[in-house]
Each structure stands twice: as C-alpha cells, then as structure tokens.
Amino acid sequence: MDGKSIYELIEGEKVSFAAGVPTVWQMMLGHMSAGKLRFSTLKRTVIGGSACPPAMITAFNDEYGVEVLHAWGMTEMSPLGTVCTLKNKHLPMSVEDKMKVRLKQGRGIFGVDMKIVDAEGHDLPWDGKAYGDLLVKGPWIIKAYFKGEGGSPLVDGWFPTGDVATIDADGYMQITDRSKDVIKSGGEWISSIDVENVAMAHPAVAMAACIGMKHPKWDERPIVAVVRKPGTELTREELLAFYEGKTAKWQIPDDVVFVDAIPLGGTGKMMKAKLREMLKDYKLPGL
C-alpha cells in the first residue's frame, strides 16, 4: 500500500467516494503534491481510524476540492459509531469555526448511545470541555467476545471503547486520545493527538507520532517522532520553534526524533507500541 498505487486506483476506477485512515491519505497526498496531480472524480472521503489532522482536512478541501467527513467507530460496534456533518446553524459560521466542528468525530448514528465518565465511573457533562473515558451501547454493539474470551467486556451494560473524549451540548463527540496513549506530565494530561496535529501542519513533515517518555520529576514527557518529506530539511530546533504559540509551553515536546518510517498496522494505523520498542534505548535530553 503506497500513495502512488492508491491514487492510480482511485483515478483508474473513477472513484467518487472513498474511506481511509489518515496515514493512508497522507501517503497519497504526498505523492500528489510531489507530482502536482489532481483528482478527476473524487468528491468526498470519510476519514476514521484515528483523528484527522486539521492540515489534512484543509489540503483535501482547499487544494483538491474534496469534502472530508470525520467519522469514528470500532469493530466491536459493527463498526460505525459517529459521523460528523454540519448542522444548519453551523453553515453561516466562519471557515475557522466550521473547522472546529469538522475536527470532531461527530454525532452518534441511530442506535448508538454514548457517554463519558471519570476515573470513578461518574457521568461527565456534555459541555465540550470535560473529557473522560468514552462508553457506548446499542443493539449491535458487542455483548461478548468469541467463546467468552476475557469475560464480559461490559461495564453496567456499557462497552468501554478505550478512547478519551469530550461531548458538546449538540452531541458532537471528539476523541482527545486513546487512553493508553495519553501522556501524564506533572499531574496534567497531554493529548498525543494535539502534539501530532501541530507537527503535521509543518510543510516539511510527512508523518508524526507522539509518545510519552519516562521522566523522574514529571512522570512522563512527550517526544515526537517525525518522518521528513522527501527533499526537505528540518531540524529539531526548527520544529520545536514551530510549536510556539500553537499550544501551551508545558505541552511542547521535549525532543524531536527523526526516523525513516513510523510503524503502521495492516489498516494503516500508527503502531505506537512498536514505536516505543524502536525507541526503548532513547533518553530524554538532559537525563
């Protein structure tokens, strides 16, 4: 699976509506940018599997005229959970405010109930600010794994998704991270997705993955592993400076590690467990 093959398949089959995870589209957009290519038929794409970077939504929409629909789901949900479409009240909004909505994974489809809870299991408000563990239930959402393996996956009838999310007053859900990927630093949570999104907005970055590294004082500190775009130059200092003003200072990564490739699974999702294994001998600067 590579950008050239995907682009040629879309063009050859005259695809008008496509779906994929961000890393797959990143490879394709990189191929198109290098060759100054255009789409002849593609009009819309659904992006799920992991959060879509704002820079990717902008590239699809502004450069190629392709509408991006953010979506979220799991195999255990058969598989769709939410789709993000604008409500009528959003249509008069500015481009920036519409983007804030499009970055969310959207509202639950018919048959899917959602809620977010804190560490003690208490329901959290739908205010778009409080974030907690995302739980779902519905008639086609998992009740048990094959042959009962692992026991019941449900908590009081709800399935814990492993995602951390917010839900706003209109019911729009936004994934802030996978629970296993959230970085805890000095008692505060840092979203690896937010760190990655800033890096992905840099014109020399082809792919970025943020992981937490052990720190004796702060528990964990974020670093970002980066694959440069072919033919570009980018230093650690330049990328860290790019974060200034885009996120809180304490959320800026402590380091940038340049790699040839970020490990991907069969569906194109980043495999952070393998990335951590690759960097098992890494030490944070100054330690």
Would you kindly provide a brief summary of this structure?
With 287 residues, this protein is of the alpha+beta class.
In words, what does this structure look like?
- With 287 residues, this protein is α+β, with helices and mostly antiparallel strands.
- The chain folds into three domains: 3-102, Rossmann fold; 109-178, Luciferase, Domain 3 (Luciferase, domain 3); 183-278, GMP Synthetase, Chain A, domain 3, CATH 3.30.300.
- It has helices at 3-12, 22-35, 54-64, 95-102, 192-200, 236-242, 272-278; strands spanning 17-20, 44-47, 67-73, 80-83, 107-108, 113-117, 132-137, 159-167, 173-178, 183-185, 188-190, 205-215, 219-228, 255-258.
- The protein has a five-stranded mixed β-sheet with strand order 1-2-3-4-5. The protein has a four-stranded antiparallel β-sheet with strand order 6-7-8-9.
- Helix 1 crosses helix 2 (22-35).
- The model has no long low-confidence stretch (mean pLDDT 94).
Distinctive features:
single chain, 287 residues, alpha+beta, Rossmann fold, Luciferase, domain 3, GMP Synthetase, Chain A, domain 3, 3 domains, five-stranded mixed β-sheet, four-stranded antiparallel β-sheet, 7 helices, 14 strands, 27% strand, globular
Unreliable sequence segments: none
* Structure annotation, total helices: 7
Label the overall shape: globular
Q: What is the residue-averaged pLDDT?
A: 94
Summing up helix and strand content along with how strands pair, one would put the structural category as alpha+beta
**How large is the radius of gyration?**
19 Å
| CATH topology descriptor of the largest domain | Rossmann fold
How much helicity do the residues have?
A: 10-25%
Q: Report strand %.
A: 25-35%
Order of helices and strands: HEHEHEEHEEEEEEEHEEHEH
Q: Which architecture of the largest domain per CATH?
A: 3-Layer(aba) Sandwich
Mind summarizing the main beta sheet? 5 strands, mixed
Number of strands: 14
User: What is the count of distinct domains?
Assistant: 3
Oligomeric status: single chain
- The N- to C-terminal Cα distance equals 39 Å
Strand order within the widest sheet? 1-2-3-4-5
